[in-house]
Amino acid sequence: MAGQARAEAVGAPGSPGGTGDAPEVHPTIRAAFDALDRTGAAWALVRGADELRRPSGDVDVLVDPAALPVLDAGLRAAGLTRLPAAGHGSHRFYHRYDSAEDLWLKLDVVTEVAFGTYQELRTDLAAGALARRHLQGGLQRLAPQDEAWLYLLHQLLDKGTIAPSRVEPAAAAARVAGTDGPAAALVDRHGGPGSADRLLAAVGAGRVEEAVRLGGELRAGWARELGLRLPARTLGSRAARRLPAPRRADRLPGSLVAVLGPDGAGKTTLSDALTAQVPLPTRYVYMGMWQETRWDPYVRRVPGGRLGRLLLRVVRSVGEARWHRARGRLVVVDRFVYDALLAAPGSSLGDRVANAAMLRLGPSPDVLLLLDAPGELMFRRKGEHSPEVLEERRQAYLALRDRLPGMVVLDAGAPADEVRRRALAVVWERVEALAAPPPGGPARSGGRRRR
C-alpha cells in the first residue's frame, strides 16, 4: 500500500506464525491500538510488528470502515493528530512528535487494500484479510499468508523495486505467501496463470531483476484490464494532492514560523530542520533585508537605488511568505520583519522608510522563536561583528519580549539537537491546535471523498 511521500514503510512482515512473544510497543502506538480495539470494529497491523517500539517509518493498519465515525476522536485521545491527505485513496494519516525521544510517529490507517503510487490498483482483499486476522503477541495481525503477500506487492507495485535492505525480508515473505490464497489468485488473474508461482520463486531466490520484471508485467496486465479507468484514477489523485482542497474542513490553514536572533545564533540551521521535518507542506523564506550582494555597489550609484532595492526585497519576501501561507503551507521565515524594531536611532531616511514598510506589510507570525545565546558564543561560531556588538543585539532582541507576546525564547547555547527538539515541540503544538476539530463541530475530514 502506498502512502504519502514518506520514509520506507515500517519493517518486513515480521514473524508470521512465530512464537507469539509480545513485542515492545511505543506507548503512543499501544494507546492507538487500544483505541482501535474500543471501536469494536475489526482491524489488523499490516506489517512491522518487530519495530513498534521505535518505528523507522509508518505503522500501517487495516481497519473495517465501521470504525471511521469514531476513529479520529479515539486516536486523538491516544495522542495522534490527523493531518489532511487528499488524493491518497482510503489512507488516513495520524502523527505525533515525541520530543522526549526525538521521534516522529505516524499511523497510516486504510480501509481498503490498494496498490500503486496513487492507490489506482484497487482490490477487494480487505474484508477477507480482516476476517482471517489473529491475535499474536498481544497484537491484531493479518494471517501469515496475507501479511506476506501484502508486503511483496507493496514492494513491487508501490515502490517498483525491492531495495537491497529488503531482499532478505522479501525472500522470507515469499516462503510464507503460498499460491493458494486470495492474493495469489489476484496475481494470477491480473498477471496471467502461474504468475504468483513465478513471482514467489524469483523473490525467494533473491533474483531481484526478475522479480521486478514480473511485477511490471503484473501491473501492465492490470492496467490493460482497467483501460481508461486507470489514467482517470491517477489524474484524479494527482490533482487532489496538488490542488487546494475546496472545502475548509479538508485542509489546514497555513502557518508562519518566524525565527529571530543575532548572527551566529543558529537561525538558518534551525529553519532548515523545521522545514525538513514537520510533516506538512513547508516552505523556507529568507527575510534578511540588509544582506550585501555583488550588485549593491552599482545600485548605490543610482539616486534612490538603495531604497528601491530595500523596498523590492521587502515586497518580494513578504509577498512570498503570504502566498505560501495562503496556500496552506507551513512557512519558516529565517529573520523577520521584527528586525526593523531594532533599528538604531540615527538610521538614515531610506532605512527608516524600509523599516516602516517591513512592519506595515509584514504578516503576523503564528509561532515566534527567538534563539538566545551569549555574544561571545555567537562570535566564536561565526566570527562576524564582535562579542560586544552581538551581546548588545542579544539584549535588544530579549527586550522585544514585552512588545511581542507569545515569543518563545530558546537557549541557543544548548546543543543544536536540543534546540531543534524544543522548537519542533513548539511548532507541533501549533499544528495540533490547527488540526483540532472546532468545539462542538465535526472533525476535519482530511481528504476528499472517493467517488
Overview of this structure, please?
This is Thymidylate kinase. It comes from Geodermatophilus telluris. GO terms for molecular function: kinase activity. The chain is α/β, with parallel strands linked by helices. The chain folds into 2 domains: 216 residues, Beta Polymerase, domain 2; 184 residues, P-loop containing nucleotide triphosphate hydrolases (Rossmann fold, 3-Layer(aba) Sandwich). The protein has 16 helices and 14 strands. A 5-stranded mixed β-sheet has the order 1-2-5-4-3. Helix 1 packs antiparallel against helix 2.
CATH top level assignment of the largest domain: Alpha Beta
Q: State the secondary-structure class.
A: alpha/beta
Sheet of most strands: 5 strands, mixed
**Proportion of residues in extended strands:** 5-15%
Which parts are unreliable, with pLDDT below 50 for 5 consecutive residues or more? 1-11, 15-19, 446-451
How many structural domains can be distinguished in the coordinates? 2
State the end-to-end CA separation.
19 Å
How much helicity do the residues have? 40-55%
Number of helices: 16
Average pLDDT confidence is 88
Cα-based radius of gyration, to the nearest Å: 26 Å
Order of helices and strands: HEEHEEEEEHEEHHHHHHEHEHHEHEHHEH
Largest beta sheet: strand ordering: 1-2-5-4-3
Overall 3D form: elongated
Q: Could you please say which CATH topology of the largest domain applies here?
A: Beta Polymerase, domain 2
Strands, count: 14
**Second CATH tier, the architecture of the largest domain:** 2-Layer Sandwich
